[in-house]
Structure formats: structure tokens, C-alpha cells
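Researcher: Going back to the complex we discussed earlier. I've cleaned up the inputs and rechecked each line, so this should be the final set. Can you rerun the prediction on the complete assembly and write out the structure?
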Amino acid sequence: MTEPLLLRNVRPWGADAIHMRLSDGAIVAVGPELDGDGAETLDGAGALVLPSLVDAHMHLDKTLWGEPWRDHPAGPTRDERIAADRRLRRDMADSIEQRAGALAAQAVRMGTGHIRSHVDVEPELGLRHVEALLNVRETFAGRIDLQLVAFPQFGMVTNPGTAELMEAAVRAGAEVVGGIDPAAIDRDRDGQLDAVFAIVERTGAMVDIHLHEMGEEGAASMAAICERTRALGMAGRVAISHAFCLGSVDAQHQARLIEGLAAAGVGVVTYAPGSSPVPSVKELNDAGVTLAVGSDGVRDTWTPYGNADMLERAMMLAYRSGFRKDAEIRLALEAVIEGGARLLGIDGLGLAPGCRADLLLVEAATMTEAVVARPAGRTVIKGGRVV
Amino acid sequence: MTEPLLLRNVRPWGADAIHMRLSDGAIVAVGPELDGDGAETLDGAGALVLPSLVDAHMHLDKTLWGEPWRDHPAGPTRDERIAADRRLRRDMADSIEQRAGALAAQAVRMGTGHIRSHVDVEPELGLRHVEALLNVRETFAGRIDLQLVAFPQFGMVTNPGTAELMEAAVRAGAEVVGGIDPAAIDRDRDGQLDAVFAIVERTGAMVDIHLHEMGEEGAASMAAICERTRALGMAGRVAISHAFCLGSVDAQHQARLIEGLAAAGVGVVTYAPGSSPVPSVKELNDAGVTLAVGSDGVRDTWTPYGNADMLERAMMLAYRSGFRKDAEIRLALEAVIEGGARLLGIDGLGLAPGCRADLLLVEAATMTEAVVARPAGRTVIKGGRVV
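Model: Rerun complete. Updated structure for the full complex:
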């Protein structure tokens, strides 16, 4: 039970100002003339109101947020980054809750209401990162919702014992089974996918597989993931993160892959990378494939970039997509909000009566300005309360 | 004459804290123990200090900064953008000084000390935009230095009378002769370049040519510009903006083009586009080609993006280049500051005694943090005074 709140003079996605009555964590009424019934009132003063932002791909356990700056420690390949991650992790084990909590707090400030975070699971680590993130989830309850992915950063087939721990992570509270480059990292596409989907069959968890594999290699992995999703009737519960292969095969092959994603109900998550291919927002959208957006690493051993601001991430996606028109830039913001909600399975994220009272007020004249200018003036509401 | 200022506790590019004595628009002393000699003191409190940022490519006359938001008006091609620009310009003629001034003020706030702005010149407009920008330059004297490029947005060969007006613009005070896609827009590569370099021979102006042309077409234009630069002994005074062709020919051809730029002393300006090829910072750097960075359009009829923040532009260049290490990200910031100074011909931009007292203080722990986080906490010093 939260106290009722009357939110006055807010403009849904930049439309004309209305008022919203929030109660018990939900939007209970919306209109141009609403009585507060004595409820506490917050005057939005014409701010834009959006549903909470969704960060569909973070690595909270790896972040160095709040730590002293350190030079990026890895060489230029994915394998060197994995090795650096493993090496440095050992010194950072004790501070996971503190680092992840600092970044979660930053996400709250930026207006993110829901995060899906991958969490490393493997024999050397056991479930330590998962346990730490479960504590962070508890600490942040009511301010931000965390969904956890049991993530085999260091492979499954090539790192025996990982699959068992991933299943234990799911039983401990992770909602999603991860995976990574089954051909490039495990060199055993079927082996890794067998292991991932076996956990899913036993636990009912969702799936979210990192796929950095480029070109034909990635395309074959994507097709294999779609095939298993169809076979298990898991439409809407499986996602492929990064999906660089979509932008690195020819147009015809890309169209076939997108058809396959649509037919299987497999979603895609992008972080709008700067120097890897960005999946086509319009083509995914036209085909009805769910596209969500995430920060990926934020200031960690993989990358110095990022600030957990999903308005900035929407800007990057729009900028990388060559979007200029309001309607195009809206596609990028909708991927963050509506795509994120669909991909994570969050019901009731919206601005209509009955929806969650998870809202972001932004001091911007229009939706496009909110994205391109990413204003600092924000008010974040979660469960009907200003947080 | 400006009053002396003792700047205490600032960290050059993130190194150990020192003090700086500024007087008469210059840095007169730098060291760990400096006496103020009774000068006014500003405590930097450990802020990073950088030379002023250089924005080497803006279009101040086109910006809508400070205007109500409007949807991007153009179709997806360059020709449609040019047509929309021309159409909308007619309603905006009276407000150029106001709009350009609002954006210049924003650039000052972000820490930019020097701007090169292209300014449209053609028969329909006459010199109106140039005259407006000359007024803005006057208004902002002491806060930011403006260098103007007489820019034939609508072609030269195909828009008779433009060349004469460009020459008149140079005589009125523009330092640079512009150009644009001589093959793609004028369909007469030699015709446009003849006209550009004829003005240069008569006036001694610098050159800065927009080159969006991709692949072999752009490569041929680039080679032609280099050839004319060599023939006229204009090394260091000619720049090619955008240079998309560098990233759209094969690696061998790119290497030959970069050799040609180096041999001719022709510089390159990029805005780190999101969906067009970004020239290779490392390869240009290794070859000794000057690379500068600019905002290009900021919230105008060409693009809704941009905020005149050259720390953000350095971040975009680094992000688009796949840079992660401090030393790599420093290349992007050096392109903004040192590359910009070289390309614009600004002497004495630096942090040593004798350099201009044009400085930016940033609340960041390291140079990389200044770029990736783009902190709002900035103090801008121009000519030895806080502006």
C-alpha cells in the first residue's frame, strides 16, 4: 500500500498536459481534470511523462562504478577482454554489492525502473556473484526491479561444472538462463545450446544468449536458437543479445534471419555499439520482432563508456541508425520502454489507468528533445512514490 | 590588458596538481609552488585543466538552438536535406544572429574557445548570413573566437554567382573558402575546384571542402584536392570535412589516400557520424595527417542531434573508433584540441608558459573520465578571464 499521489500537469510522451492519480502502485485515473481527493500532489509543471525506462542488458557485477578510474586493462579481442575480466575479478570480489549497488542507484536516478542484469556463474566463482546481486535486488526493492541472468561468461562446454551452477542460480532466484557465442567460445554450438535449453526445460526459466559471432557463424547460431525456441514453444521467452550477425550478413540473408526471429518469437537486445554492427531497428520492427535496449557494460573491465542513462542509450541507437525524424527517434525510445517491457516480461508498463505507477518525468518540450538532449531535470516515480 | 589571475590546484590533462599564473591573456608561469603576487586567485580544487576545446566544423547560421522544437523536415537523402534547408531558411532569415548567438553561448558554456563555422553564401542569400555571423563574432569577442568559411551549400558551377559572392565574403572577413562534393553536387570536379582555388590565389584564404562523396568518387575528389594543394604550396592550409570516402574504399586504397593527404599537408575534419564511415583516427595520426573534430549541424534542419559539447564529440569519436584504453581516448581528445588548433591555425593553444590563457577546468579524476562522463562541472577561461 502506498499513499495516493496526484500528479498534475504532465505531458504523456509530449502530448497535452493531463493529470494522473496514482494509488497502490498503479495509475488509477488519467485526465485533463482530475480531483486529488485530498491526495498528496506533485506538480509536474508541464514535464514530459514516460513509463519507466527499461535497461534490458547490464552487467552489474562487473562494474567499476564509484571506484577510482583505471585504464582499460585488456587487449583488443573478445578473448583478451574475457581474460582480463577473469584476472581482475579476483581483486574485486568483496566489493560487488557496493559497486553493483552504486550503479543501480545511478540507474534509478536516470529513470530506469527495470534492469535485466547478466551475472557471471562458473566453478571458480560458484554462486558468489548471484548471491551478491540477489542482495542488491533486495536492497533496491521498491526503487528498481532487477531480473538476473545466470551468465556463462567463460563458456559452458569448455568450463565443466558451469551448467550445474547456472541451474542452481536459477533455483536461487535468477529468472533467465544465459549463454555466449556457442560456436566461437565453446566451439560446440549444439553442446552449449543443449545445456542451456535443458536447464530451461527443468526450471521454466527464460533465455538470453550473448551472440557476438559475426556473419555466417553468428547466423547459424541464431538459426539454431530460433529452431530450439520453436521446438519448445518458448515464443516470447527467448532473447539474443547483441546479434552482430544481423548487420554482417548480406541483406537477403538478414531478411531471412529476421523472418526466423519473428516466426520463433525470439527477441533481440542491442546496446547500440559504436564500432560493431547495430541491428536494423526498422526491419526488426516491421517484422514484429521485439527489440530491447541495454547499457551492456558500464565503466567496467570491458569498457570505459556508459552511465546507465537509457535516454542516452536511445539517442545512441537513433544516432547509429541514422534516425532524424521524430517518428524514427520514437522507435528508438519505444524499443527502450515497450520493447524492454515485452522482452523482460514486465506487464502493465504504460501510461493508461491500470498500468504500473512506474514513471519518469523529464523536463523536455518533446519526446525527441528528451532523447537527443537527455535533460538532467528528471523526477523518478516507482510504485507510485517519488524515489 | 586583463587583470592577472592565479589559478590554483589544477591538474594538466589529469596529472599532479599545479598552479598557473595568467596575465594579459597568456599563461605566464606554471608550477607546483607559485606566488600570486597579489593577483586574484581561483582555486581549481583539483579539477582537470585542458586547453580550450576547438569546434572545427559548425553551421551556426543554420541552427534552431533556442527555437521551439520542430520535426526534422527532410527526406533521407542529402539532396532532400539541401532542399529542405533552402525552403526553411527563408522563414528564419531574421533570426540568424539570435540563433547563432544562442548556440555560440552554449559552446562557450561547454568550454569551446574556438569555432570554425561554415556560412551559406549564394545569390539568393547574398552575404546576409556572412554579415550576421560577422556581427556574432563581434558580439562574442573575448568569449569565443569564430573563424568563418564562405560555404557554397548549393553548389558553385551549378549556382552561378556563388563564387563571386564567396570571394566577397572572404574580403568581408571570412578566413576560409568552402566547397562541397565537386563531383556529386556540381558534377564538375575541376570546375568547382578551379573556382575554389582561384579565390584562394587572389585572397590568400584557407580552404575547407565538405566531402560526403563515398568510395571511388570521393577518393578521386580527395586526390584532386591534394594535387591542387601541393601545386599551390598550401600545406597546412587546406582541410577536407567529413571525408566519408576514407572509410568506404578498400584498405589499400585508403592507405594511398592517407599518404596523399600527408604528402600534401591536407587535414581532415570529422564529426564522428553515427551512420556514415568515420575516418581512422589511428591511421591518420600515424601518417601525420591533422585530424580535427567538429559538431557539424547542431539541432538544425539537417539533424536534431548535438549540443556543442566537444567533450561529448570526443566521446563519440572514441566510441565510434572502438577506443577503450586511456591512450586511445586521449587521441580523440587531442584531435579535438591539438588537431583543431593546427587545422584552424590557432597558435599557442596549450598549457605551457607563453600559451594562450584559454582553458577549460573539468571536474573529473582523469582525462578519460572527462571524455566518457562529460561532467557538467566546468569552468571556462578565455583570455585569462572566467567567462
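Model: Worth noting: The longest strand of chain B covers residues 40-51.
Researcher: Good, that matches what I expected from the previous run.
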